[in-house]
Amino acid sequence: MSTDPKLTGRPLRVLLVEDNADDAFLLERHLRHAGFHPQMLRVETSEGLRQALESGGSGEDADGWDVVLADYHLPAFSAPEALKMVRKTGADLPFIVLSGMVNEETAVAAMRAGAHDYVSKQNLARLVPAIEREVGDAHARRQKAEAEIALRSSERRFQYLADAAPLGLLIGDSTGRLLYANRAVERLLDCSQGELLSGSCALKGILDEAAQSLSRARDAKPQTREAVATPFESHCATREGISIPLLVAATILNPEAPVSEQQTAAFLVDLTEQRRSQEAVRRTEKLAATGRLAASIAHEINNPLEAVTNCLYLIRQTELDDTALHYLEMAQQELDRVIHISTQTLRFYRQNTRPERTDVHELLETVLALYERRMRTLGIECTCEFSTLPRITVYDGEIRQILSNLIGNAIDAMQLSGGRLTLRTALVRDWKQDREGIAITVADNGTGIDRRAMKRIFEPFFSTKGTTGTGLGLWVSREILAKHQGTIHVRSHVPRHDGGSGGWTVFRVFLPFSLEPEENAASSRDAAIAEQDEGSETTRDLATDLATDGETEGETEGAVP
């Protein structure tokens, strides 16, 4: 009697390929005496075997059977044919051949065909051990196959999770050689998996740093083999050579293995956005402090300005000759300019709250009046090409500030050798956002803006004027345009060293007719960073006019970044 717990006391599902009912009865009785409770189905044709394999003894599939016992010779069927049908199902089903006459050649042929054993009907004592062995082996094979399927499924889940993770994941061996990199690393470095694993994109240094950090962590706790490195900062380079700051955390995946076989996992966090946020916060704090200081200074200046204004008024009431009155008038004009500057400084910190319908040409004329004397002194010619425009609802003081910044910058660019300042206005349509508005173009044939400076001209505190510039003019203009849902675009050309065309710069401001409430202005910031399609030809024409020999090679352009 069998003592195998897998078989004793449980049914044995037997598919019997046999044409002799008496032999089937004797076989069933032998199995019962051996301690089995056989559930036996006898078939003797290929059709019967096919149906039995499909039913599986339990209404499912061929895996419902525990073993197939097949007589070698049947009138219309045979064991080799039955074996082919069983193997065709793909089921791991033990197949034992039974025969009244066994010769070595027949047994070897059956085993080569895939039979698991060959037993003589005259020696059934070998049958039970053969069934126990083959059923046990089949059970072990099925468990192994299920474990492999589960392992592959787990590997796929890990792959999906690792690729979907926003963090970069690297796995390397003890030599620092990269074994795995997830999709986040591919996106971070713009390299394919093959390039990463081949070493085309250098990451070995990060794994080396991680290994050293882990070694230090292990040395600090010698009582444990496990080690998790304290996160540290590092850098890696993209395909284009751009350096990316990283926060790296590392651990050992198999601490129980020998050191030479251990694998290191490193998690990478891109700190670029965090650094940008920190820089933005720093700039915001700096700008806020600058604004408060400017407002405080302007407020203190207002008191003596008022006193001087009163003094000038009192002087005007006295008897003065024409020359004195002329000088008094000049002093009053300059004092008005100082008051205007003080008021604008206060507005830098305290924004205007009431937009008004404004004539853009009047704003331009008032700004030009402020710079008229300076342009005449520097020999700068000013050309105005104004179209007929309707009034537009804007914060007039702030638009005047933009125009003052652009015109002042143009004059600074031409102060060494004079030049030509061109102002244009036109009605335009923003086809991208389907809105109409006014375009104001300020162009000069001064020194131009090089490519490096072009990338930063709208950053706060960046200036190309050295100690004479604050670096706030264009930044403030950008903020004002964002509040007006407007845009600003610039094209420039720097003179070549070989004596080619002269320099020039063209700024183009777009102001829409419909101004949203101030609380919605933040949502329109994206609109202020795109170049408008309309008017681009006008800008190019003006740029060509400004170039002394018509060349525009080497020009740079940019919108609000």
What keyword list fits this structure?
18 strands; rod-shaped; disordered C terminus; alpha/beta; 561 residues; 5-stranded parallel sheet; single chain; 15 helices; 6-stranded mixed sheet; 20% strand
Describe it.
It is built from 15 helices and 18 strands. Helix 9 runs antiparallel to helix 10, helix 11 (about 360-380) runs parallel beside helix 12 and helix 12 (about 395-415) packs antiparallel against helix 14. The model is unreliable at about 1-5, about 515-535 and about 545-560 (pLDDT under 50). It has helices at about 20-35, 45-55, 80-90, 105-115, 125-165, 185-190, 195-200, 205-220, 270-315, 320-350, 360-380, 395-415, 450-455, 475-485, 535-545, and strands spanning about 10-15, 35-45, 65-70, 95-100, 115-120, 170, 180, 230-235, 245-250, 265-270, 355-360, 380-385, 390-395, 420-430, 435-445, 485-495, 505-510, 555-560. The strands form four sheets. A six-stranded mixed beta sheet has the order 12-14-15-17-16-18, sandwiched between helices. Strands 2-1-3-4-5 form a five-stranded parallel beta sheet, with helices on both faces. The chain has a five-stranded antiparallel beta sheet with strand order 7-6-10-9-8. By secondary structure, the protein is an alpha/beta fold. It is rod-shaped.
